Amino acid sequence: MSTAVITGAGSGVGRAVALRFAGAGWNVALIGRRSETIAETAALATAADRVSAFPCDVSIWESVAAMGTAVLGRFSAVDALINAAGTNVPRRSFEELSIDDWHQVVATNLHGAYYCVRAFLPGMRERRTGTIVNINSDVGKMARDLAGVAYVASKFALTGLTQQINAEERGHGVRACSIFPRDINTPLLDKRPQPPSPEMRAAMLQPEDIAECVWLAATLPSRAVLDEISLSSR
Fold it and tell me: pTM of the entire structure?
């Protein structure tokens, strides 16, 4: 049985991806900073026996290292890693962004993804199989003032991280994909200086849309490397 590790699994895209994979019969490791939210995700899964929760702050390497050991102790091997954890701050422009907020955003969005790759890539390389999917953003290719400097910089760097995985590891049977959605209706929107209205949220991409993209990237034949997926709403 295949196993997926999903960060940010307590809400939004991470939760939707977790439920998609669990519903398809995969073992799923739910990774999230708050134990109560990943427990809520686990309760929503149709096959709770295949889902395990691992509280972890991905911005802290020691926390990720311990989580990686626990996950491999539970499932022995990981077939897919989905980095869906992400954050932003309301005061995000060059004029307003604090040093602490810069570090918080970059630590979660970039360092967290790298730490999780570092935890699970060796096992994938040894088994010569594995898929890593990084939930990026359209601002990982073209900046928008709405996103803020720390978020944009972290997402551009995540693009490079994904490309480097493919550059170094595709010969070892490991592939990576960056997904570049435009606005998604997730709780992260509440951190905007002016959160969008319910009508605007309804017209955006939904977490389940991104989950289908992740599923495609992870289940294509192993010979196929889907480097990028870009998508937006109508």
Answer: 0.95
Instruction: Give the model confidence (pLDDT) of 138-159 as tens digits.
Output: 999 999 989 999 999 999 999 9
For the domain spanning 3-229, the CATH number is 3.40.50.720
Largest CA distance in the chain: 50
Q: Which residues contact 199 (CB under 8 A, 6 or more apart)?
A: none
- Interatomic CA distance for residues 195 and 30, integer angstroms: 27
Structure token pair of residue 64: 């990720």
For residue 125, the one-letter residue type is R
Domain boundaries, the chain: 3-229
CA neighbor of 155 nearest in space, from 89, 86, 218:
86
- Contact 56/67 with Cβ under 8 angstroms? yes
Which residues form the catalytic set?
151
pLDDT tens digits for range 66-119: 999 999 999 999 999 999 999 999 999 999 999 999 999 999 999 999 999 999
**Coil/strand/helix, residue 50:** helix
Rounded-to-integer distance, Cα 58 and Cα 50, Å:
22
